[in-house]
Amino acid sequence: MSKIFCIGFQKTGTTSLGVAFERLGYKVCGVYHELLPDLCKGDLDKIKEIVREYEVCKDNPWPVLYRQLDQYFPGSKFVLTLRDEETWINSVVNHFDSKPSDMIRYIYGVPFPSGNETLFLERYRKHNEEVKAYFKNRPGDLLIIDLEKEDVWNKLCPFLQIPIPSFPFPHANKGAYTKAGKWSQYIWKRVRARWRDFMNNE
Question: Is the predicted pLDDT of residue 187 greater than 70, yes or no?
Answer without folding.
Answer: no
